[in-house]
Write a structure and sequence with these properties.
alpha/beta; Rossmann fold; 45% helix; 22% strand
């Protein structure tokens, strides 16, 4: 699937299935925002994504907190 020019946001992206999804989206050409409570883990995933020559950002976000989500999206 070609996702060049697309942006993706993955919650729980620092590990497990979320990490795998982030990396797959990046391999398919998307730039990825990695949301997770574990900022250090999200930053490691961002390093992997940038190694694939894609843009990425790690954000510490508790997705059950509406204010945090809105703040992260702005």
């Amino acid at each position: 699937m070609c996702l060049r020019g697309k942006n993706a946001l993955v919650t729980g992206g620092a590990s497990g299935i979320g990490r795998s999804i982030c990396l797959r989206l990046a391999r398919d050409g998307a730039d990825v925002a990695v949301f997770d409570l574990d900022l250090a883990g999200a930053e490691k995933v961002v390093e992997e994504i940038t190694g694939l020559i894609r843009r990425a950002a790690a954000l510490q976000v508790d997705v059950i907190d509406r204010d945090q989500v809105e703040s992260a999206l702005n």
